[in-house]
Amino acid sequence: MILERLRDLGIGPRALAPLHLRPEALPYRHLSLLPLSPTIGAEISGVDLREPLDDETFSEVRRAFLDYKVIFFRDQDVTAEQHVAFARRFGELELHPFLPHAEGCPEVVVFAKDERVRGVENIWHSDVSWREAPALGAVLRAREVPAVGGDTLFADMGAAYEGLSDELKERIAPLRAVHDFSQTFGAFLSPDELARRRAEYPPALHPVVRTHPETGQKSLYVNAIFTSHIVGLEAAESEALLESLFRRAWVPEVQCRFRWRKNSIACWDNRAVQHYAASDYHPQRRVMERVSIIGDRPV
């Protein structure tokens, strides 16, 4: 009982069973993979994203994306058009209503930090969970990176869910939570603009535990940036439960950490992971470009 309570508060799991370690997992024939951790993340080599991938190679890239949940590529000096073309292989692309985009390329969101603009993405989160149909995934490219620092961490929220006690799994199974952009992006809008945007993007209601539409795996689907409260619970109970669930992303056994180099690319399954951009490089410059893929409504 004591160990189960501690585990629910955020200690590491006793054991994990990553998808890519299943006995029936197929080998990869068109690319090479180097896992970053036993649980999540793999670096792919033998692929040049400047050229369109043949169907067999992309099929393996897509399988690695599902198995490892975040995949990485080095030395990909792609243009914005090539970046967009690769992301579009995964599905229709998203236009973000609040973040700046590259000139002439609205699908490419730009994150530029320097001595005047500090990084603020250092909170564990899932992208645009405030949408009715949050992003399927994202392809993030490093244009400029600091000499050291600015790593991005990723957490496998399926493994985080599996680490919960049976009692807690049963408790949260029927629950739904509200996700709201105004907790973050709303702070930068005038009252009139906020009201207009709230009408356009009303708070979304999603299950606390979502089932992946392709793998069938269950994962925690609440995050500290956008999840405001759990429906049907008193405010204090909702806050306490959410804080406990948020902490599941903090467990090192469910994480990998990626050190960027110029022209590195990360591609993650936003339905199954959260990420955290370490803000430890100020006043150095860091410029990243992201293209996101439209997903479906969580169930």
Descriptive overview:
This protein has helices spanning 2-9, 55-68, 80-88, 157-162, 166-172, 191-200, 235-246, and strands spanning 32-35, 42-45, 70-73, 101-102, 105-113, 135-144, 152-156, 176-179, 204-207, 209-211, 218-220, 227-230, 255-258, 265-269, 273-277, 286-294. With 299 residues, the protein is of the alpha+beta class. It has one domain (2-294): 4-Layer Sandwich (Double-stranded beta-helix), CATH 3.60.130.10. An eight-stranded mixed β-sheet has the order 1-2-3-14-6-16-5-4, with helices on one face. It is globular, with a radius of gyration of 19 Å. The model has no long low-confidence stretch (mean pLDDT 92).
The appropriate CATH architecture is: 4-Layer Sandwich
Poorly predicted runs are none
CATH homologous superfamily heading: Clavaminate synthase-like
Number of strands: 16
Structure, briefly:
With 299 residues, the chain is an alpha+beta fold. Helices cover 22% and strands 26% of the residues. The radius of gyration is 19 Å and the shape is globular.
Question: What are its keywords?
Answer:
299 residues; alpha+beta; Double-stranded beta-helix; eight-stranded mixed sheet; three-stranded antiparallel sheet; 7 helices; 16 strands; 22% helix; 26% strand
Topology of this structure?
Elements: H1 2-9, E1 32-35, E2 42-45, H2 55-68, E3 70-73, H3 80-88, E4 101-102, E5 105-113, E6 135-144, E7 152-156, H4 157-162, H5 166-172, E8 176-179, H6 191-200, E9 204-207, E10 209-211, E11 218-220, E12 227-230, H7 235-246, E13 255-258, E14 265-269, E15 273-277, E16 286-294
